[in-house]
Design goal:
alpha/beta, Nitrilase/N-carbamoyl-D-aminoacid amidohydrolase, 7-stranded mixed sheet, 6 helices, 16 strands
Length: 258
Amino acid sequence: MKIALLQMDIQERNKDENVKHGLELLAQAAVGQDVVVMPEIWTTGYSLGHIEQDAETMEGPVIAAIKTIARENKCNIVAGSMPMKIEGKIYNTSVVIDRNGVILDYYSKFHLFGLFHEERFFAPGKHLATYQLDGIECSNTICYDLRFPEMFRHLALAGAKMIFIPAEWPTPRGDVWKLLVQARAIENHIFICAVNCTGFFKGEPFYGNSMIVSPTGKIIVEGDEKEAILYGDIDLEDIKRVRNRINVLNDVREEFTK
């Protein structure tokens, strides 16, 4: 499976430019790929002062444009996340669109980041599930969710073989980013595809370093702190090979996971 990671430079208080630039990069990244993954709230960044006006809808022009890019390139798109208005509330939501331009699934961020007071802007997500992407069981989390290992264990036990993590993770906690992404892959024998942004928020840089990590913790591709489209190939047979040698999931005491 060929995966492109869209490590985008997100501008503060400039939704129009972010949308324009993001769609241009997406159209470029989708050529010849099976999946493209975008970062967290790439349309607005953390400039959330006008979130009511800036929130997207499933029927809106941004989702429509992403559907068109998916359909024209026959490429699945994990559209990072965006402020989305759903049933009268605004969520931080990742939308998955298949090769035919059809919405396959969506996930709204469960764990809201108290340090940035996300609860002032977003309702917490309620829907956590896996979905089939080209016959592969996948799921989504978003940024801060990475710090909650029980969430990843739940998804792995539910059958997920790959988990996508759109993020806006800052440089001061960059070492934690890398450690946690590798840990979530190793402890669950799955692929992790973590896509961070670059740019700044209130003068603080985002870390970049988007990566795909194998079930053994090996980094297949990794970015640096600059905007880039990163390309990686994964072999799903790696999961079988790892689990044939050691399979922690078989030994989970499920009474302690509830």
